From TrEMBL:
<keyword id="KW-0472">Membrane</keyword>
<feature type="transmembrane region" description="Helical">
    <location>
        <begin position="37"/>
        <end position="57"/>
    </location>
</feature>
<protein>
    <submittedName>
        <fullName>Uncharacterized protein</fullName>
    </submittedName>
</protein>
<dbReference type="InterPro" id="IPR058341">
    <property type="entry name" value="DUF8028"/>
</dbReference>
<feature type="region of interest" description="Disordered">
    <location>
        <begin position="1"/>
        <end position="24"/>
    </location>
</feature>
<feature type="transmembrane region" description="Helical">
    <location>
        <begin position="63"/>
        <end position="83"/>
    </location>
</feature>
<dbReference type="Pfam" id="PF26071">
    <property type="entry name" value="DUF8028"/>
</dbReference>
<keyword id="KW-1133">Transmembrane helix</keyword>
<keyword id="KW-0812">Transmembrane</keyword>
Length: 89
């Protein structure tokens, strides 16, 4: 005779892929920001080169223009890295 109880057995771990780490609010918050961050990074990486063109047309002779160009270039590289997986399943 089997003992089928309608009450769950609390000693058995979760049956799904959800673990204790998945229920951590900070991890959930970081995972929820991943999609929008990739979206924003992807489009920043697309649009930022259009800002480089006027700087290059003006010339990099001035140190402030050169610094601005290098900072924008670094931001573009970071945006490319962060946004490279956008809309890929």
């Amino acid at each position: 005779m089997s003992n089928h109880s309608p009450l769950p057995n609390e000693s058995i771990g979760p049956s799904g892929p959800e673990t204790e780490q998945d229920r951590d609010p900070s991890r959930w918050y970081l995972r929820s920001l991943r999609g929008p961050a990739q979206f924003l990074s992807f489009w920043v990486a697309i649009a930022l080169p259009f800002v480089h063109v006027p700087l290059l047309a003006q010339g990099l002779g001035d140190s402030s223009v050169t610094l601005t160009f290098l900072v924008l270039l670094a931001i573009n590289v970071v945006a490319l890295y962060l946004g490279h997986g956008y809309n890929q399943e």
